[in-house]
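Researcher: Re-running this chain for the archive, since the previous output was lost when a drive failed. Same request as before.
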Amino acid sequence: MARKKIVKDVEAEEKVKKSKKDEIEEEVTEVEVENQEEVEEIDTRIDDDDDFEDEEVEEKNTKKDKKGNKEKKQTKKDGYFKQVGKELKKVVWPKGSDIIKYSFAVIIFCVVLCLFFVGIDFIASLVKGLFV
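Model: Regenerated structure tokens:
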């Protein structure tokens, strides 16, 4: 009796799984059909709107040109020192620790170059001494 009940339960679970699987497959096919319809609709819109897009691009370009002209006019109105002030506000100044690091690196690099050229000079004087 227990076996019959278990078998019935398993059969019921399988039926539920099959029905859920069928529902999912139906939903997937519906979504695919909807997506295909949307793609076709978009394609027709693109074909119809080619001329319209060209007009939009031209309008945007003219608007950008007008905005660029306005910006140029505004900068011409600003004085030299106002422009300098605006640019200095954009500058990211280094911190004190960075300045120390960079200064130390430059000094070491200069010392190394100095030693290099002193060595080259010394070698050149030795070679010159051999031939004179």
